[in-house]
Amino acid sequence: MLLEKKIAVITGGSRGIGRAIALAMAKEGADIAVIYAGSAEKAAEVCAQAEGYGVKAIAYQCDVADFAATEAVVNRIYGDFGRIDILVNNAGITRDGLVMQMREADFDNVIAVNLKGAFNMIRHTARQFAKQRSGRIINVSSVSGLMGNSGQANYSASKAGLIGLTKTIAKELASRGITCNAIAPGFIETDMTEAMPESAKKTLAEIIPMGKTGKPEDIAALAVFLASEYAGYITGEVIKVDGGLYI
Ligand code: NAP
At 86, phi and psi to the nearest 5? Predict the structure, then answer.
């Protein structure tokens, strides 16, 4: 198994891509801490399924945008698991709208969850990673952050910001044996994309060179690899998993 005896924290692990990452890591032998915002039942289901793989799994409610709450939850996780080896900053939201109509709160909230949320989690784990001279940080960005996307000024900015954050953290922490990489998914079938208008989904699917949308498991496979020993010399990278959507 690729992640035996590792402890992984996955934000937004209750649904979609985060759920798939949490379960894939558990299947590879990692104990998992699943952070969710409101879906207590779904997070509990993920943990129950993970326990079926023989690992320890605990769900934690926490708004990643809240600096003090993330500090408290990280402390609880250290208390429950003793250490953290892998941090996956996956929690994310969309509040789409054309820029001329976008509400200030929709811009602020998306940046707060998607970008500051990742900073908060890194801020509260980095010192311990540095002390143990190891750690894997994986940030879930998006091709929207690389190519821009009409109707997503807030989201694209947050995801582009995550790429800057990833590269900086990679440089700052490389000498301590810590890697930090970003995954940029394309169009993946989850609740987030289910909420898109049918016409937008159809147009997007048509322009993907591989001719199909992705599954959460497509992202989880890369997350497991980046967390594994195989990826020990990879840092500061942004890897697209998008069926060729952004070539
Ligand atoms: P999703 O199905 O909507 O799930 C979002 C997850 O984030 C849920 O577990 C949710 O928890 C959690 N979350 C939301 N706000 C939170 C907060 N303030 N604090 C803590 N947790 C919070 O989304 P998804 O499609 O799996 O997306 C996962 C990540 O991939 C996001 O960062 C997204 O931007 C990125 N991404 C997705 C796609 C795609 O096509 N789906 C493409 C590119 C990038 P609750 O269940 O408790 O609400």
Answer: -130, 130
Count of structural domains, the chain:
1
Ligand 1: which residue has its CA nearest to atom 8? Answer: 12
pLDDT in tens, 106-127: 999 999 999 999 999 999 999 9
Give bridge partners of residue 136 from the DSSP assignment: 86, 179
Q: Is the CB of 36 under 6 A from ligand 1?
A: yes
- The answer to whether residue 246 sits within a structural domain is no
Residue 2 lies in a domain: no
Residue 122 maps to which CATH number? 3.40.50.720
For the question of whether the overall pTM of this predicted structure is more than 0.90, the answer is yes
Tell me which residue range forms the domain holding 143. 7-240
Q: Is residue 223 part of a domain?
A: yes
The finding on whether 213 has its CB within 6 A of some atom of ligand 1 is no
Question: Ligand 1 centroid vs 88 CA: distance in angstroms?
Answer: 12
Whether 247 is covered by a domain: the verdict is: no
